[in-house]
Amino acid sequence: MTGPNALKDAPSATAEDAVVDVRDVHYAIDGRPIFSGLNIQARRGLITAVMGPSGTGKTTLLRLITGQLLADRGQVMVFGRDVATLSGSEVYAARRRMGMLFQNGALLTDIDVFENVAFPVREHTDLPESVIRTLVLTKLEAVGLRGAAHLMPAELSGGMARRVALARAIVMDPEVLLYDEPFVGLDPISLGVILRLIKQMNQALGITSIVVSHDVQELATIADQSYLLSGGRVVASGTPQELAQSDSETVHQFMTGSAEGPVRFHYPAPDYTSQLLGADEG
Amino acid sequence: MSNAVRHGVILEGLRKTGATGIFFFRLLGACVSALRRPRLIVAQIFNAGGRSLIIIMLSGLFTGMVIGLLGQDVLARFGAETALGTLAALALLKELGPVLTSLLFAGRAGTALTSEIGLMRATDQLTAMEVMAVDPMSYVAAPRFLGGVIAMPLLTAIFEIIGLFGAQLVGVQLLGIDRGVYWSQMQSAVGMRDVTEGIVKSLVFGVVTSLIAVTEGYHAEPTAEGVGLATTRTVVASSVMTLLLDYVLTAFFL
């Protein structure tokens, strides 16, 4: 466990257990450090939640795991191999074992729902059309959108687009599913459906899931293991219940959504009163 | 402009040229795997070529008609109005056909390519492909590049044929130049070299314009403003490069 506020050590995990193992990762963008000594493990068959305030690099973490970005220092082990040492074709082979749900769905806008879900299958296999059809309809049924197969992405609501994207993410039966802010901007019904789907994917298919989000309450209902990021490193980890009972100020601030605490809500600015009184000076 | 600023501008220009060069070679590599998806390339030939047909045909017709009108007026001053066919053919085949088609192509198809790819970048579609282990260079960039490269000479040919018809329409039908003279003068004066010059130019313009459009879209800032700026850069860069390369190629063929 890292950081002075570390709640407790992560449950001991063997190398075989950890499908994704982020070890002492440092990463900076334009000289601005995003991660400085990040350690996260996602264990096989479990739902791992990665939480943190906006701008803590949660999406960057997913891009490091998929090999779209490479760490400046440290190791990102995926399926037991360091992503940085993989060749281009090996990275693509590793990605074929993963699925990712994007925040906005990222559906291809020039093809319909059916073709979107069929896209990875057509690209990576030579299955006959009848098998592809069965496969796609099965996945669409799982997310409750078999009837929307003929619709174009522009005709879908935000929640529907995310469910189609989820069907596309699982169509190749991945071992790992990465979720990037899956609950943002959803109405309560869509949110509940997505939440149940994530749990079902995990329980029914045994998929290892990494959910990156700042929706603490939602994550608490499904996560097996949670990490809280702040200042480029993990400040606490444990089950959601353990985090909720933490006496760490950072954890408490995040779990209760308070503007006051170690994580600053206000962007650095000059004194409020003097700036208001001296409005002409900007 | 201070020295430091001047150096910065030069360095930025060199960096951009180098980046485009590297991207071009990556694109050529991706074209090989894109050839395994002929359906995508045909769709892009339709997008870039088929959807530009109306504007190309109309522009070709009016350009030819202007050549007929102006050519007859100027040539008549020297008593050489029978040479209108030669003038129209040489002007259209060697210069106006490839250059105007390229400029129109940049404005119609080039901007569409840039904004489409830029929006795909802004909405994470390209990233999603990468995560699905599908190379967006092969699936998105290369088919659009090849579609543009193939469509350009075809559009140029159509522009020239309609242009010759337009010049004939005004010169022969309206202003009374003998039809037989119009076509026979053209036939005797225009050689294969002139036709080749036009074809080479249209191919080069097709490569350059499509490359600029795809490069700008692929590297567009993933915001509304970024895509808008990239689209503008496509038109400006394609137009300037078309005219610059036209001079170089014309000098080469002299």
Tell me what you see in this structure.
The complex is a heterodimer of chains A (282) and B (254). Chain A has 282 residues and is of the alpha/beta class. Chain A is 35% helix and 23% strand. In chain A, helix 3 (113-124) packs across helix 4 (129-142), helix 3 (113-124) packs parallel to helix 5 and helix 4 (129-142) packs across helix 5. Chain A is globular. Chain B is elongated, with a radius of gyration of 21 Å. The longest helix of chain B is centred in the middle third of the chain and has 39 residues, at 84-122. Chain B has helices at residues 3-34, 38-48, 53-77, 84-122, 125-131, 136-174, 179-189, 192-218, 224-253. The two termini of chain B are 39 Å apart. By secondary structure, chain B is mainly alpha-helical. Chain A binds chain B through residues 66, 68, 92-93, 95-96, 98, 100, 102-104, 106-109, 119-120, 123-124, 168, and chain B through 119-120, 123-125, 127-128, 130-135, 139.
List key phrases describing it.
heterodimer, A: 282 residues, alpha/beta, Rossmann fold, six-stranded mixed beta sheet, globular, B: 254 residues
What layout of secondary structure does this protein have?
The complex is a heterodimer of chains A (282) and B (254).
Chain A: E1 18-29, E2 32-43, E3 47-51, H1 58-65, E4 73-78, E5 81-82, H2 88-95, E6 98-101, H3 113-124, H4 129-142, H5 158-170, E7 176-180, H6 188-205, E8 208-213, H7 216-222, E9 225-230, E10 233-238, H8 240-244, H9 249-256, H10 272-277
Helix pairs in contact in A: 3-4, 3-5, 4-5
Chain B: H1 3-34, H2 38-48, H3 53-77, H4 84-122, H5 125-131, H6 136-174, H7 179-189, H8 192-218, H9 224-253
